[in-house]
From TrEMBL:
Similarity comment text for this entry: Belongs to the sulfotransferase 1 family.
Membrane topology note: Single-pass type II membrane protein
Region (Disordered): 57-76
Location(s), subcellular: Endomembrane system; Golgi apparatus membrane
Keywords: Disulfide bond, Glycoprotein, Golgi apparatus, Membrane, Signal-anchor, Transferase, Transmembrane, Transmembrane helix
SS bond partners: 339-351
One Gene Ontology term, aspect cellular component: Golgi membrane
Stated name of the protein: Sulfotransferase
Basic and acidic residues: compositionally biased ranges: 57-72
Pfam families the record matches: Sulfotransfer_1
Lineage of source species: Eukaryota, Metazoa, Chordata, Craniata, Vertebrata
Top-level class of the enzyme under EC nomenclature: transferase
UniProt: 3'-phosphoadenylyl sulfate binding residues: 150-154, 231, 239, 356-360
Domain Sulfotransferase: from-to ranges: 141-376
Length: 393
């Protein structure tokens, strides 16, 4: 009898032990499952937009402006026409500054549009991509690259996009010049989604020479940080002309367009290629609204000779940790320019496309000299205003 009792006691103890070990295993399994699900969730949702603990002091300060939405159908179709926010788009500013056109047509006219469009399809169809696109919210930009055309604005934006705390729209929105009537909601909708602490950016090089742009950006938010990539105005003019020539091979020579009257040597300052380079004049317009401390001047020349050095200054200006360093760049001998070892959202090295770093035509030395003389006083004024000698003279 007592043995029978002992046996049944042993059995029930064993039963209890096995029950609790199964329970433990189950709980462990559940915890692992939860951990795994959490890791998966945070990776899909956050990896692409992971912020660092450094916060931008300007975030959430954006204020609403007075812009109104006009064409509803256009507003709806545009986000679909926009290239994927991730990836390397080598878009180029348009050569006709004055012609008012719609945003969608700007994109369609762009020679790099086809590349951007084909790049878009594969990634956007994947579930992972749409999941990661779901996190955060769209905000108005806290920092804008406002110019100058042919200064190196695309290189700067693509380099900045490597920073985990910067999210930028790939195409040029042209909001503060051509599309202002579409309103701030339209503009905000073009922006990529950001998380707390991330900075939204865009670049449109024509803003620097747009009379209304400073007041309009100020109306959006007086705290907006503006960045200007400046380049020797003579080389900039030739670069501008080279771009136009590549699209319209029949235009007159650079030399003949430079002068109002070749014999008197009177320079045609109404030609945009020349006008854009009078930096001091355009800057005066911006200083009516923004203090010097809110404007950063990046040297287009140094952006090529020392990209990490220039990027260091930009990251400081934006209140970001210096994450982009010389380790991110290599000099591509074939391209003749610095390139990224890894482009944003990719593990492959990447240089800008063939529309960046074109071969310039040879320009008559006397004409170049005449232009140097023309720009010198404006350059001096610009150095004085910015407190920085860019070494063009
Ligand atoms: N890393 C790198 N790779 C290629 N090109 C570079 C780079 N950094 C600066 N640049 C210079 O950028 C010039 C084009 O300037 P933008 O991008 O501002 O042009 S645009 O206004 O958007 O059309 C372009 O002008 P061009 O050389 O006249 O083609 C380049 O000199």
């Amino acid at each position: 009898g007592s043995r029978l009792m002992e046996n049944s006691l042993l059995c029930s103890r064993l039963y209890v032990i096995s029950i609790s070990s199964v329970k433990k295993k189950l709980i462990l399994l559940l915890i692992m499952l939860l951990l795994w699900a959490y890791t998966l969730y945070s990776c899909m949702g956050y990896c692409a937009t992971m912020p660092s603990p450094i916060m931008d002091s300007n975030r959430d300060k954006e204020s609403q402006g007075t812009g109104r939405r006009t064409d509803a159908s256009e507003v709806e179709i545009l986000p679909r026409l926009l290239p994927r926010p991730q990836g390397w788009e080598d878009l180029e500013t348009d050569y006709e500054e004055s012609s008012p056109r719609t945003y969608s047509r700007d994109l369609l006219n762009n020679e790099d549009w086809d590349d951007a469009k084909s790049e878009q399809s594969a990634a956007d169809l994947s579930a992972l991509s749409s999941f990661s696109n779901g996190s955060g919210s769209k905000k108005l930009p806290q920092a804008i690259i406002i110019g100058v055309k042919k200064g190196g604005t695309r290189a700067l934006l693509e380099f900045l996009r490597v920073h985990p705390d910067i999210r930028a729209v790939g195409a040029e929105p042209h909001f503060f010049d051509r599309n202002y009537n579409n309103g701030l909601d339209w503009y905000r909708d073009l922006m990529p989604k950001t998380l707390e602490g991330q900075i939204t950016m865009e670049k449109t090089p024509s803003y620097f020479v747009t009379r209304e742009a400073p007041a309009r950006i100020y109306a959006m938010s007086r705290d907006t940080k503006v960045i200007v990539v400046v380049r020797d105005p003579v080389t900039r003019a030739i670069s501008d002309y080279t771009q136009t020539l590549s699209k319209k091979p029949d235009i007159p020579s650079f030399e003949s367009l430079t002068f109002k009257n070749r014999t008197t040597g009177l320079i045609d300052t109404s030609w945009s290629a020349i006008q854009i380079g009078i930096y001091a004049k355009h800057l005066e317009n911006w200083l009516q609204y923004f203090p010097m401390g809110q404007i950063l001047f990046v040297s287009g020349e140094r952006l090529i000779s020392d990209p990490a050095g220039e990027l260091g200054k930009v990251q400081d200006f934006l209140g970001l940790k210096r994450i982009i360093t010389d380790k991110h760049f290599y000099f591509n001998q074939t391209k003749g320019f610095p390139c990224l070892k890894k482009a944003e959202g990719s593990s492959k090295p990447h240089c800008l496309g063939k529309t960046k770093g074109r071969t310039h035509p040879n320009i008559d030395r006397e004409v170049v000299q005449r232009l140097r003389d023309f720009y010198r006083p404006f350059n001096m004024k610009f150095y004085q205003m910015t407190g920085h000698n860019f070494g063009w003279d």
